[in-house]
Structures are given as structure tokens and as C-alpha cells.
Amino acid sequence: xxxxxxxxxxxxxxxxxxxxxxxxxxxxxxxxxxxxxxxxxxxxxxxxxxxxxxxxxxxxxxxxxxxxxxxxxxxxxxxxxxxxxxxxxxxxxxxxxxxxxxxxxxxxxxxxxxxxxxxxxxxxxxxxxxxxxxxxxxxxxxxxxxxxxxxxxxxxxxxxxxxxxxxxxxxxxxxxxxxxxxxxxxxxxxxxxxxxxxxxxxxxxxxxxxxxxxxxxxxxxxxxxxxxxxxxxxxxxxxxxxxxxxx
Amino acid sequence: xxxxxxxxxxxxxxxxxxxxxxxxxxxxxxxxxxxxxxxxxxxxxxxxxxxxxxxxxxxxxxxxxxxxxxxxxxxxxxxxxxxxxxxxxxxxxxxxxxxxxxxxxxxxxxxxxxxxxxxxxxxxxxxxxxxxxxxxxxxxxxxxxxxxxxxxxxxxxxxxxxxxxxxxxxxxxxxxxxxxxxxxxxxxxxxxxxxxxxxxxxxxxxxxxxxxxxxxxxxxxxxxxxxxxxxxxxxxxxxxxxxxxxxxxxxxxxxxxxxxxxxxxxxxxxxxxxxxxxxxxxxxxxxxxxxxxxxxxxxxxxxxxxxxxxxxxxxxxxxxxxxxxxxxxxxxxxxxxxxxxxxxxxxxxxxxxxxxxxxxxxxxxxxxxxxxxxxxxxxxxxxxxxxxxxxxxxxxxxxxxxxxxxxxxxxxxxxxxxxxxxxxxxxxxxxxxxxxxxxxxxxxxxxxxxxxxxxxxxxxxxxxxxxxxxxxxxxxxxxxxxxxxxxxxxxxxxxxxxxxxxxxxxxxxxxxxxxxxxxxxx
Lengths: 247, 522
Prior knowledge:
The complex is a heterodimer of chains A (about 250) and B (about 525).
Chain A: E1 4-6, E2 16-17, E3 30-32, H1 38-41, E4 47-51, E5 58-63, E6 74-75, E7 78-79, H2 86-89, E8 93-101, E9 104-112, E10 118-119, E11 124-125, H3 135-163, E12 167-175, E13 181-190, H4 192-196, H5 200-208, H6 212-221, H7 224-246
Antiparallel strand pairs in A: 1-9, 2-10, 2-11, 3-5, 4-5, 6-7, 8-9, 12-13
Chain B: E1 9-13, H1 17-29, E2 39-44, H2 60-68, H3 72-78, E3 82-84, E4 86-90, E5 100-104, H4 116-127, H5 131-135, H6 138-143, E6 163-165, H7 168-181, E7 186-189, E8 192-197, E9 203-208, E10 213-215, E11 218-221, H8 228-233, E12 238-240, E13 249-256, E14 268-273, E15 276-282, E16 286-293, H9 300-314, E17 326-329, E18 333-335, E19 339-340, E20 343-345, E21 351-352, H10 359-373, H11 379-409, H12 417-422, H13 430-439, H14 458-467, H15 483-503, H16 507-516
Parallel strand pairs in B: 1-2, 1-11, 2-7, 4-14, 11-20
Antiparallel strand pairs in B: 3-6, 4-5, 8-9, 9-10, 12-18, 13-16, 13-17, 14-15, 15-16, 18-21, 19-20
Helix pairs in contact in B: 1-7, 1-10
């Protein structure tokens, strides 16, 4: 359960957050990401285009595993990569809306009071003695702002891809070292043939909108699927080793 | 016109769904909007109202929309369209309260590898599941009120096979705009009042009351029941089949939903009556309900009363008094030929059958695609194409008549003359009698249908036959039953059924989401 409240420096003057905020949410094989973090994501993660369950609209996601709830980057309570996707990094904070009047609302910073990392006892404080936000809180605010801006940027990016028919479905068929197989559907990526066939005008247009680089970064990130398979093979070996020693 | 004259101008007469689908299909195939080798003109009377036939389609409509380049999202939004996953036939076999069976749009499980009919027949007594439920996921999906796909499926893709229910009037208006704006079809609003012939009997030109004359190389008659070119001008005889199919009248109404968010059925519901049956088709904004009946067996007043009762039972409406009731006369049958000289008829101008298996629009689509794909290059080869077209469609009409009759002749209803008369051997075509004679001893299979031009696959015969309680005497021929494999297939279907119902959204919910978000192209 989540229990979200808007943060203020009076009520929450003594609130602290430990660094295991994401342990409750880590077990997922896809996480939504934003265009502005592509340059960092590409170092570790395959970034794919997926559809939201409730709307069927396209969004961007980093692939973390090969089955539901499998996150190969989450190892023994630690995130096994230097860059953590913003969607995880922001936890346990959220952006909420607060109604100002009947027709206007404000964005407010919220915290999930039910997250085990939140308490008044231990962790990094949200505010300093004078009631000013701590560096920790400022950093989280920045990440949330990035995610918020990212929503609009993502929509513009997806719309541009659709305009040029650049989105194509693909199926990931993988056989792991231990001969187990998996097939993941519902994934989409950039159609490289169509991209190569775009007119000079279309390319110039995408470039002017600062999207060309994102397109190529997204394509480049596909190669991280091999690194992810490698992680899975190692995880399988660890599991096999476990069974051999216990049997 | 000399025999080597190339065919470059196709003139379609009539602006109903038949006219626009045919004009659009030809224009799309020959890229009339960008290339100028072929020109398509549609002449439509500004004064003749459109008869909205067949609000039910076949899954072929998906390929037709794709061929025309129409977005499924736009089509759903503009045409009040919904998803159709087959038909539910209620009270056709015994007429009792819980008597129903489904004719779904998906093949039985493992159909390419095995024929589950015989196995189902042997285990049916203990299994206690209807054939369509035991071998196919779709009955469960329909009964649960679910859509065949989710908002995450691309346009024209889905978990289950599907067709559409649509508002024929809106569909025609949509096609008019689309075909003229996107596909390069020329639109002439005028009343044809004279046909000018060439020496060889071909149509040279059409003259109109408004003074416009339209010359052409090929004329497509989509003038509805009037059959202005094929029937009136060429006098090609009409072959009635009212000796086989007795339906000759219809009363139709639009029934509002109880609330704007009422569930929408994802199948056509056909409920048998004393002297005919009632169709019930769920669109987004209303239901289309109508009673087709045999005027030889029932008066119009009685038909009205039956329709009134049905509407009372299935809605909160207090009957149909005060609602506009359309009274339609139906002549079942078709023209002896469909293509004569340089004129081919499509739609009602070619013939009409009761909408029991939604055959009207599918025949339009099949005709339009054959004309578009096999468009004769010049007048010299047109007669060959015409002959093939005539052979193909004579066969198809016959097969449809047989298949419709099958629904009636298998009934066990004794309660009225209409049902008893339908089983009279003199009213059953020989071709159908032969099939049933064969199936007394072996289960219906694809091997019984040898033509490339079949309209209904063997699976459809199975759904109707087993749905209506037909059994084959398999006797010594137990080779039909591969119990292990069949059992496994039934298990698989049971699993798929549960998953489909759990994962698929309700029909209304999906329609709402399509309005809100649209379906993606991929």
C-alpha cells in the first residue's frame, strides 16, 4: 500500500529516508524511462518502446529482465549498476496535484509514508535545522522535475516516431546457456530500414527537434540485450550452484 | 469501342455501401489518386434514399479496410462500429428457453491437424459442453461480454478473430468522404434516366436528368433492388429462391440502450420466432433490432407484436409504439448472371438473401475485390473475366443459400407451420441433401469442400450442425477419433478460454478507450 502526503517543513521537519527505498518496487522487468536520461541508460540497459496497459499508448521503458517481476539489476538488495533509472531513483517521492480552486491545481511534492524507508528515526533528513530542504531532498526534487518534463518530451518523441512510421514490433526469442528458452512479445523499437530510407528533409527536421540523437541512442541501447542475457546466464548458474550444493 | 480499346474508365452507379466499397476497392487497387491510367466515377442520385443492408460484417471487412487504407480507429469512431465475434442462435433447435448455440469466427482448436467433431460427439454426454464452447474460446468471450482485443493490440490485430457491426448510413457517408478525398474517386450527383448503347450491345454512356452524360468502359450496377442496368436495361432474369428460404418481409427498429454505458454484445443475436427470427445487433449508440418473417406464415400485425414483445423483454422500453418501424419487403434470390456485356452488378442489384449469416456485405467485398484484381485490360478479354465472374458468383450464391437453409432444416421445432414447412424435402436443394447424406456417416471436414470459391468453411458447417444436435453415425469408422490428441486440444481450449476471459476488456470499455486513446497502427 502507498500512503501519499504532501511534504512541508513543519509537519515533516524530522522526517528521514534510508537508502533502501526502492527495495519494495525493484521487482519489475520493465521500468518507464524518459528521453532525457537515454544517454545514461544506454551504458547499462536496453531501452525499448512499450505500450501502457490501460491506454495502449506508446512509452519508453528500460528492460531489466526476461519475465514478469525479474529485475536482473537488483541483486541481494543492491542495484548492480552505476546509473539507476530516475523512476526508481525518485522513490519514495512522488509528484501529486493539489487543487487550488475548482479549475486550477498545483504540483506538490509528496512522500509515501508507508514506504519502509521513511521514518523519523534513521536515514537522511529531508530538512536542515533551519527548515530549508536538505541537498538530498533538492536532488530528489530535481529528479522528479526531470520525470515531469520527461512526460511531455516522451510524447513529442513518440509522436515524431509515429509521424515517420518508425515504430516496429519485435519479439525477443532467446535460448539461454542452460537451454531454457524465453519469448517476449509486446516490445517495439525503431525500424532501422525505414530510418535509413527517410528523406533528407525528414532527417533535418528530426535533428532540428533534437530527436535524431535520441533515436540513435535508443537503437544503440539494443545491444545491451546481450549484456542482459549474460546477467541472466550468470543468475541461472548461481541458481544451479545453489541447487547442487543443497541437494 | 473496338475490342482492343483499353479499359480506363469505370463508372459505378449507386451510392450505397455496395457502390462506395466497389469504387473504393478499384480506386485503391489501381492507385487512382496518384496514377492516372484508370479513372473511377460514381454516379449517385441526390434523391434516392439508401437502404441500410447488413449492419453485420464478416472478418473480411478487416482486409477490405486495410486494402482501402482506412484506419481502424477512424472507422470505429465514424461508423458507430463495434466488434462482432460471431452469431448466437437462440431457440433455433427446440425453441425452449435455454436453447442456443454459437457460430463463432474462429476455427476449432487444432483444426489444421485434427477434426474434433467426432471426438466431441463421443464424449459429449459426459462433457456437458456445447461443441463451440468445447473447441473454441469465442463463445466464452462473447458470453462474458468481452471484446476480441485490448487497447494494446494494434489496429486490425486481436486475441480472437473478429468482424464488425456498423451503422450502414454512417459507413456510407464515411466512405463517400474517404473515397473522394483520399482515393481519387470522382463523384457525380445526378439521376440516370437513359442508357445509351453501342452497336455490340455494350453500354456506351449514361444520360442524366441533370443533363450530364457519363461515358465509360465498364459500368458497375449498384442501384439496389432496382437493378437499373443489369435488371431493367439488360433484362437479366431474377432467380427467386423463396421456395427454399421463406423469409420475405422485415420490420426493423432502432432500440436505445438503457444507459449510455450499457454493455454491448460482441455478437449478433438471432432469436427464432414462430415464422422467422429476430436480429439484434449492438452498435455503440443503439441496438439495431428487426424481425424477418415469412408473410405466407405470419401477418404483419403478428410480426409487429413479436418484435414489440422482444424489445420489451430485452430493454426497459415499453414496447415499440412510438418508435419508427421500417417495413421492408425482401425478395430472396439473385440474378441469373451478374456480368453482362460491359456491366456488372454488385450488392442488392445482384441479389439479396435474409441477413442470417451477414452475407450481403461479404458478397459486395468479394465482388469488389474480384473486379478490382481482375479488371480486364481491354474489351476483348472482358467476356472471359465476365464468364469467370458469373461462374464464381453463381456458385457462391448457391453455397450461401444452402448454408442458410441448413439452419432451418436442422430445427426440431414442431410448434408452427413455418418450421415444419422448412423441413419439407421439396424445399431443400439437392446439393445440400447430398452433403447431409454424406455426413450421416462421416463428420463434416474440409475435404467435403473442393472449390476455391467456398464462402463458408467446413468449420462453419460443424458449428451449425453440432450446435443444432446433428450427429454422424461413425459406426466402424473409428479412425475419425484420435482420443489422446483430441483430449489434449480440448484441455488447451479450456485453458485458453479462461485466460482470454480474464485478460480481455469488456466490449464497451474497449470502445470507450478507442475513443479516448485510439488504437496504434503497429
